[in-house]
Write the C-alpha cells for this entry.
Amino acid sequence: MVLVTLADVARRAGVSPTTVSYVINGKRSISEATRERVAKAIAELGYHPHLGAKALASRRSNVIAVTVPLQGDKHVPLIAEIVMEVAVTARRHGRNVLLLTGTEVVDDLRGVTMGGAADAVILMDVELEDPRVEQVRGTQVPSVLMGLPADPSGLVCLDLDCVGNGAACADHLADLGHHEVVLIGESEIVYQRHKSFADRTLDGFMRRAAERGMNAHFRPCEGTFESTAGTLARILGERPGTTGFVVLHQAAIPHVLSLLPQLGRVVPEDASVVAVCPDRTAVQTSPQVTNVAVPAAQLGSRAAELAVAQLEGETVEGVTLIGPTLTVRGSSAPMRAPRA
Amino acid sequence: MVLVTLADVARRAGVSPTTVSYVINGKRSISEATRERVAKAIAELGYHPHLGAKALASRRSNVIAVTVPLQGDKHVPLIAEIVMEVAVTARRHGRNVLLLTGTEVVDDLRGVTMGGAADAVILMDVELEDPRVEQVRGTQVPSVLMGLPADPSGLVCLDLDCVGNGAACADHLADLGHHEVVLIGESEIVYQRHKSFADRTLDGFMRRAAERGMNAHFRPCEGTFESTAGTLARILGERPGTTGFVVLHQAAIPHVLSLLPQLGRVVPEDASVVAVCPDRTAVQTSPQVTNVAVPAAQLGSRAAELAVAQLEGETVEGVTLIGPTLTVRGSSAPMRAPRA
DNA sequence: GTGAAAGCGCTAACAA
DNA sequence: TTGTTAGCGCTTTCAC
C-alpha cells in the first residue's frame, strides 16, 4: 500500500508527468488516446493525488475552514447542525471542510489561513464585537460571517432576519386577535451581553406589536422548568389578561406549553404560543407549537455557497438575511369571542 | 500580506532554515540564544508554517478525518454534536479535523486518506454492514469506528453499551415494582435494517426484563404524535395493565409523556417512563424524564482520544463500550401499592 | 498535443 | 549546537 504518485502514473502510461497533471485537472486539451491511457493507468494503480503537494504547488488548498467559538452559553446542537450542512454543501462543490472548534479560535484561524490550509473561512456565531472579524478583515481571505458584527462593511454576512422573525410573531398574534402579549426571551445575561440575535428579535417584536396596537411586554428566562414557571407566574400575576406568548428560549418551549394549562390557560383556547425554533423541535412538543423557523439547513448551505462563490471569483453582496417563515401548528388559535 | 516562509525567518534571525524548523518543532536541542532570536524573528514577521508543505515533507498531515454518512434516517443533531466534540478534543491534541459529510463517503474516504490529507479517520455511525469498514481495513490507516460492524476484529470501535442500556431500563422498572412493561422502539424499518443500535438495546431490555420476572413487550414507533398515540392505544388496549414504558425514539418522548395522562395514566403515579436520550433532552420534557444517557460529549472526545492514541503509536484495545448511566427524574416512581 | 525543468515551503538525513 | 543538501508530489511556465 505504498503511495502512488503522479510520476508512477506517467511512467505507466508512457507519458510525462505534465500530461498526467493536465489530464487530471483538464487545463489543456489532450488527445483522446492519451487521455484514455492515462485514465487506465490511474485506475490500475489506484492513484489519488496528494492534496498537500497539490496545495503547495498550486497555492490553493481547496479547503473551507469553519470556525466555531465554543465558550459557554452557545446553543451547540443548532450550531452543530448548521456546520454539518455547510460540510455537505461544500463537499458537493468539491471543497473540503476543516472544522476549527475551541476557545482560541482567533489563533487557529490565523494559523490556518496564513498557513495556506484553507482558502476561505466561515465564521459561525459571530457576535457584535468579535475578534475573528478583525482577523479576516485584515487578511484578505474570502469569508462568510454567520451573524452580524457591529460593523459589517466590506464583509459577507449571513443571518436570520431576527427583526423580521420578531415582527412575524407579533403579526401572527395580532391577526389572531390578541391584545396582551409577552415575549419570553433568553437568559438575562444574553441581553446584557447584547448578543445581536436576541436583541434584534425582541426589537422586531416590540415594534410590530406596538404598530398593531397590542400591549407587549418582555421577560428574560433561564429556560429551566423552575425559571420558566417563575417567569410565567410573574407574567400572569402582573397581567392576568396576557393571552399571547412568544418563546425564544428553546429549552423553555415545552415548559411553557405544559405550564400554561396548569395555570388555567388551555392552549390554544385560552392562550396562543409562538416559538422561534427549528421546525424539528416544533413538531416534537405537544401540542405542536406554532413557530418561526430557524432553518439550520438553509443557513448552512447558503453559507457554503457564499464561500464557494467568492472562491470562484464572483462578487457577492454584503448582508443576506433569511426571512421569517411562520408555520401555524396546534399552539395558536383565534382569540375566543370576548364574552360568549 | 505576502506569504512569510521559513527561509524568511531564517534570514532575519541569521540562522539556517534547519535551525528554524527545529526551533519550531523542538526535535533537537537549541541554544537559548538562538531560540530567542528565532522566536523574535517569527513574531516580527508574523510567520505561520505552511501546513501543506509540512504535510508533504513530513508525510503526516496532522489531520483527523471524520466521515459522516448522511443517507436519510439519521438522527442528525446527535451525530452533529458528537462531531463537534471530536473536533474540540482533536484540536486540544493539536490535530485538525476534516469533516467528510455526504453520500459517497467511501470515495471521499479513500481520496482523503490515500491523498495524505488525513492520517487517521473516525467513522461515525457505523452499521453492521458498512462499506467504509472494508476500506479502512484494507489500507492501514489508523481508525476509530463509532458503532459496531458485523466483524469488528482488528478494528478500534467505540459505541454505547446498548445491551447494558436496555438492561438498565429493565432493572430500573423492576426495582420500582413494575410487572407489565413495554419498550417503544424506533421505526419499524430501523429494525428491518438491523441497525445494531436498536437491536441491541431491545435485546438487553427483553433479556433483563425476563430475568427480573417482568412481562415485557415491544412496539416500534414512527415518532410522530399520531403514530405515538396509535402505539400507546394499541399497547394499553392489548395490555391495560402495562405500567412501565421505555422510550427509544427521541421524538416520541414528549408525546408519550403528554399522551399517557390523557389515557388515564398519570406519570409517574400510574405509569413510569424511562427514555434513552441525551441528558439535555431529558430535562426539557415535563415532567423531566428518567433516562439512560446518550453522552454525546463523552463519545466524541473518547473517539478523538482513541484516534490520537493510535497516531502516537499506542496500541489501543478493540471495542470500547460506554456503559449505562441512568438518572432518575420525575417520570418514574415506585408502583403504587397494589390496592391501597 | 506533449515534455523538461524549476520550484512551492518544509523536513530530515548527513555532516561538521 | 548548527548548517548543507536533497527531496516530498505536484503545478506551471516555456519550449517544442
Summary: Chain A is about 45% helix and 15% strand. The mean pLDDT of chain A is 93. Residues 76-92 of chain A form the longest helix (17 residues).
